[in-house]
Write a structure and sequence with these properties.
The chain is of the alpha/beta class. The chain has a single domain, classed as Alpha-Beta Barrel (TIM Barrel), CATH 3.20.20.70. It has twelve helices and ten strands. An eight-stranded parallel beta sheet has the order 3-10-9-8-7-6-5-4. α9 crosses α10. Bound molecules: flavin mononucleotide. Flavin mononucleotide (FMN) binds next to loops.
């Protein structure tokens, strides 16, 4: 991919401290396997909102797939299909959901940024479209009311190509800032309540790092929480997601599933997140790299690698199912 696009995708906000912590915090956790367990038969499947997923890794919402592949999100959806994973389509998709939904056999969700008052008419129509084309869930991203300090993209002079269309954010001026995030600063808990009243689809709140926000999300009728720091791209120096996960899980209890993203690169990372209470994880950058170098087979290959590594981690830890991955998999220091 072009250098500037790579810098936009790979980069984090400001000094990239959170970006680094996301990885370092996973690496700092040591695993403590049990041995001589019969691991001939294992089951990596997981239930999420009444559906079985083959393994607990989802594709996180990421913007502008046409930056790295001419078919954009349609190609990603094909890869998600082949790799048996759920794809969360970004509001900054460069393809329409009608085309994306046709390209996948897997369940898929749609992500929203701005759910503020000014967008209600648009959102009402969008919800109708999403229902009509078989969308299975919504993700509301709460950690990006403005775009973070994308210094690395700026230094690389990254800008969006003029012909890159984003059907759900047609206003080009909103995308012209570095990183292209639409400003969604007017969204509040009251707007979330409005959205809740408008749809029966499961809604997940993404970008939660504080246990009090997790509690508010449950109170607002959210069906799930995604512990995320936007891959270290928004507020720099917020903690690694795996560091705050246990607090959020504790606050939420068993009321709704908690998911996590940020720095998941190995099967052992998936296991660590599950051990600390996540139901499943999402990956962002890894599948964009797969999409860039190999299109749909590239995305599927990234998923296959992670799935294989996760199975290996499970077996080498003496665990057979996700239910058997508890805190005792991780060494307490
Ligand atoms: C290039 C890029 C674009 C992204 N665009 C969005 C987006 O449109 N909406 C959103 O909710 N999150 C977006 N994210 C954040 C991801 O959903 C996810 O939180 C993050 O990538 C996970 O971290 P990882 O890349 O380390 O796996 C984006 C991330 C990247 C790298």
């Amino acid at each position: 991919m072009p250098h500037a696009a790579y810098e936009y995708i790979a980069g984090g906000a400001a000094d990239e401290i959170t970006l680094r912590w996301n990885r370092e915090a996973f690496d700092a956790l040591a695993l403590r396997p049990r041995v001589l367990v019969d691991i001939e038969r294992i089951d990596t499947s997981v239930e999420l909102f009444g559906r079985r997923l083959a393994f607990p890794v989802l594709l996180a919402p990421t913007a502008f797939h046409r930056l790295v592949h001419s078919e954009g999100e349609v190609e990603t959806a094909r890869g998600a299909s082949a790799g048996e994973a759920l794809f969360v389509v970004s509001s900054l998709s460069t393809r329409r959901v009608e085309d994306i939904s046709r390209a996948t056999t897997q369940p898929w969700w749609f992500q929203l940024f701005d759910i503020g008052r000014r967008r209600r008419e648009f959102l009402t129509e969008l919800l109708e479209t999403l229902n009509a084309v078989g969308c299975n869930g919504l993700v509301v991203t709460a950690d990006a009311p403005v775009t973070g300090a994308r210094n690395r993209s700026e230094r690389a002079h990254f800008s969006l190509p003029d012909d890159l269309e984003t059907p759900y954010y047609p206003d080009r001026t909103a995308r012209k800032q570095v990183g292209g995030l639409p400003v969604s600063g007017s969204s509040t808990w009251a707007d979330l309540a409005w959205l809740r009243s408008k749809t029966g689809l499961p809604i997940m709140l993404k970008g939660v790092l504080h246990e009090e926000d997790a509690k508010l999300a449950v109170k607002a009728g959210m069906d799930g929480i995604i512990v995320s720091n936007h891959g270290g791209r928004e507020l720099d120096t917020v903690p690694a997601t795996i560091t705050v996960l246990p607090r959020v899980v504790k606050a939420v209890g068993k009321r709704v599933p908690v998911l996590l993203d940020g720095g998941v690169r190995r099967g052992t990372d998936v296991m660590k997140a599950l051990a600390l209470g996540a139901r499943a994880v999402l990956i962002g950058r890894p599948y964009l790299y797969g999409l860039s170098v190999g299109g749909a087979p590239g995305v599927a290959r990234v998923l296959e690698i992670l799935r294989g590594e996760f199975e290996m981690a499970l077996k080498l830890s003496g665990r057979r199912t996700l239910a058997e991955i508890d805190r005792s998999v991780i060494l307490r220091t």
